[in-house]
Design brief:
Layout: E1 4-8, E2 13-16, E3 23-26, E4 31-36, E5 44-47, E6 66-67, E7 75-76, E8 81-84, E9 88-92, E10 99-101, E11 106-113, E12 117-124, H1 130-141, E13 148-152, E14 155-156, H2 163-166, H3 168-171, E15 176-179, E16 182-185
Parallel strand pairs: 5-8, 6-8
Antiparallel strand pairs: 1-9, 2-3, 3-4, 4-5, 7-10, 9-10, 11-12, 13-14, 13-15, 15-16
């Protein structure tokens, strides 16, 4: 069987070893460079989720690079893929195709305000509903769940919507949390 090394989450520097060839993932979490001993080229670059092409005022990716659209299923990476931070990445040491996916469980973090600080929901998965997230935010803020609303692009999210349906992993920085009359945002 092929031996594979695995990285999960943002990492500043991690060395991968194995019988075939070592690989190295270095750089700050918002701009990771993937290098291997066989090739001196950087076949993949990982960038933060806020660097989607042409969205939120960000520039499109550099010429020749493609934005990787993650899902909860393993997908092969093109050599020039730009990856959002926080993905599960499979790096085969035998030179076969690299793969990535959204982790089965990931953490949603949001700065609410000076009174409430950071709100964290540690176990977001593809089936996590917006109702579950509202309950978590209500517990954190010590407010009634009815006073909490979640929205993306100005549209309220229904309690039945799942993280996968609304693309929350890719759009977590756009999430708006409203407590009563005050709007609290991820940024």
């Amino acid at each position: 069987p092929t031996e594979k090394a695995r990285l999960t989450g943002p990492t500043e520097s991690a060395r991968l070893g194995g019988p075939s060839a070592p690989a190295l993932l270095t750089g700050p979490p918002d701009q990771l460079h993937l290098m291997d001993a066989v090739s001196s080229a950087a076949p993949a670059v990982a960038r933060g989720t806020d660097l989607a092409a042409g969205t939120n005022g960000n520039p499109p990716p550099p010429m020749g690079l493609a934005i990787f659209e993650p899902t909860y299923e393993w997908q092969e990476l093109s050599p020039s893929a730009i990856l959002p931070a926080g993905l599960d990445v499979e790096l085969p040491l035998d030179g076969s195709a690299r793969r990535a996916r959204i982790p089965r469980k990931w953490q949603l973090r949001s700065w609410l305000d000076d009174n409430h600080g950071f709100w964290r929901h540690a176990d977001v998965s593809r089936t996590t509903t917006m109702g579950m997230l509202r309950q978590s935010a209500a517990q954190h803020t010590h407010c009634d769940v009815g006073s909490i609303t979640l929205s993306l692009d100005g549209a309220l999210l229904s309690d039945e919507s799942t993280a996968e349906e609304v693309g929350l992993f890719q759009r977590m920085k756009e999430l708006r949390v409203t407590v009563g009359a005050a709007t609290l945002s991820q940024s």
